[in-house]
From TrEMBL:
This is FtsP/CotA-like multicopper oxidase with cupredoxin domain. The keyword Chaperone does not apply. Signal peptide: none annotated. InterPro entries: Cu-oxidase-like_N (IPR011707), Cu-oxidase_2nd (IPR001117), Cu-oxidase_C (IPR011706), Cu-oxidase_fam (IPR045087), Cu_oxidase_Cu_BS (IPR002355), Cupredoxin (IPR008972), TAT_signal (IPR006311). Keywords: Metal-binding, Oxidoreductase. The lineage of its organism: Bacteria, Bacillati, Actinomycetota, Actinomycetes, Micrococcales.
Length: 435
């Protein structure tokens, strides 16, 4: 779906559907009956008008992940709740200088976010305006799901909530190991979204040349050759692939995000995501990538305030048995679980702030801030030299990251949270308000 005359109107219906997943009959959750939902294409300065009708049997809402839009009105409102059978009209205005790149939409109703994403509710948003000459522009939404023998979505266990659930089946655009085809010499742009509720992806495509154009709303100054890209849940990669003859696999190499003292609990093994067959006549030369405008560097601005934010997981007892942990753990930030009516960080109007996010817990957590993009300036106590803009930043176990945030635009109230969505639903979310 593309915007016309500066407006993209979408009728979005969240509903359960019976479809086929990995050759099996499955009852999943969909936007408008498809897995994933349709891709939306907009330009900076456009308006999005979305009418969301909730045909699910639980409350829902919609969040446009990564869009730099006002949290006032309903443009970014994780506090809205749309009851079953009801509709809601969103109106979201993208500023003229909105970053280009790949973003996405998904439900954000606190308490059911993980269940609804795991069930299939997600779709891509492409903000166009930095076109590269390519033969194909593909959105590849990676998700995971577990199905019971009767084809319904597997319920989550208490232990999976603590660890963050990972599905048995990893899907690309709703398909299990789809086959992609191209001709040698063709260049494609791949917009990869990690829509898994908890799984980290270490993307690689051995046998093909990958070049990174950007991650989230951040842009590389020039395409950068990479062997792999780490995408925490919520992150996106914008990649160029120049096709070389042969058959290869798009894979995730596996990642250990730590565990609660349980060996291997947070270890995801390597998985094939898709196969790519490149055959036929070489298509010849590819035109050069146009020059890209460098991303701004917030380090040129004075810091008004520094704060520290810590992920917390507090254990209520020594019991670690399966199923027994749910009640034993409290997830949150700075020792507190999410409360919608409390302001956790009050930011002065117009401020630039430096946030140090620490993780004393035994596992990694992806830190996500709405509305206000973060410039990553330090990770693992190493400075990050290039301007590096993200909306999800992984904070490794026992580690810390440092970011700069420009609060001079889009006053209002929104949230930050762990993008392991089981953690978010369990309370690992907090509010920030700027006036
Ligand atoms: Cu992708 Cu607050 O979420
Ligand atoms: Cu978000
Ligand atoms: Cu977490």
């Amino acid at each position: 779906l593309r915007s016309q005359d500066g407006v993209l109107r979408v009728d979005l219906v969240a509903e359960a559907r019976v479809t086929e997943v990995a050759g099996r009959r499955a009852q999943v959750l969909t936007y408008n009956g498809t897995l994933p939902g349709q891709t939306w294409q907009v330009r900076p300065g456009d308006r999005l008008e979305v009418r969301l009708r909730n045909e699910l049997d639980t409350a829902t809402n919609m969040h446009t992940h990564g869009l730099v839009v006002s949290p006032q009105g309903n443009g970014d409102n994780p506090f809205i709740s749309i009851a079953p059978g009801e509709s809601f009209d969103y109106r979201i205005d993208l500023p003229e200088d909105h970053p280009t790149g790949v973003f996405w939409y998904h439900p954000h109703r606190h308490g059911t976010v993980a269940d609804q994403l795991f069930g299939g509710l997600y779709g891509a948003i492409i903000v166009t305006g930095d076109e590269v000459p390519v033969s194909r522009d593909r959105s590849l939404i990676v998700s995971d799901i577990s199905l019971t023998t009767d084809g319904t979505i597997a319920p989550v266990s208490a232990q999976e909530v603590m660890m963050g659930r990972e599905g048995d089946l990893v899907l690309v655009n709703g398909q299990h190991k789809p086959r992609l085809a191209a001709r040698p010499g063709e260049r494609e742009r791949w917009r990869v979204i990690n829509a898994c509720t908890s799984r980290y992806l270490r993307l690689a495509q051995p046998g093909q040349d990958l070049e990174l154009l950007g991650v989230d709303g951040g842009h590389e100054p020039a395409p950068r050759a990479v062997d792999e890209v780490l995408l925490a849940p919520g992150n996106r990669a914008d990649l160029l692939v120049t096709m070389r003859n042969g058959t290869s696999e798009l894979r995730t190499l596996g990642y250990d995000r730590g565990g609660m003292g349980m060996m291997g609990a947070g270890m995801s093994g390597p998985v094939t995501l898709a196969t790519l067959a490149v055959t036929g006549q070489d298509t010849g030369t590819t035109r050069p990538v146009p020059e890209r405008t460098a991303d701004p560097d917030l380090r040129e601005r004075p810091v008004d305030r520094r704060r520290e934010i810590a992920f917390t997981m507090t254990m209520g007892g020594a019991m670690m048995g399966p199923g027994g942990m749910g009640e034993m753990m409290d997830l949150g930030f700075d020792g507190r679980a999410f409360a919608a009516d409390r302001v956790d960080q009050q930011v002065a109007a117009g401020a630039v702030e430096e946030w140090t996010i620490t993780n004393p817990t035994p596992m990694d957590h992806p830190f996500h801030l709405h509305v206000w993009p973060m410039q990553l300036i330090e990770t693992d106590r190493e400075p990050v030299l290039e301007p590096t803009w993200r909306d999800v930043v992984n904070v490794p176990t026992q580690g810390q990251v440092r970011v700069l945030v420009d609060f001079s635009r889009h006053p209002g109230r929104s949230v930050y949270h762990c993008h392991i969505l089981d953690h978010e639903d369990a309370g690992m979310m907090a509010t920030v308000e700027t006036g």
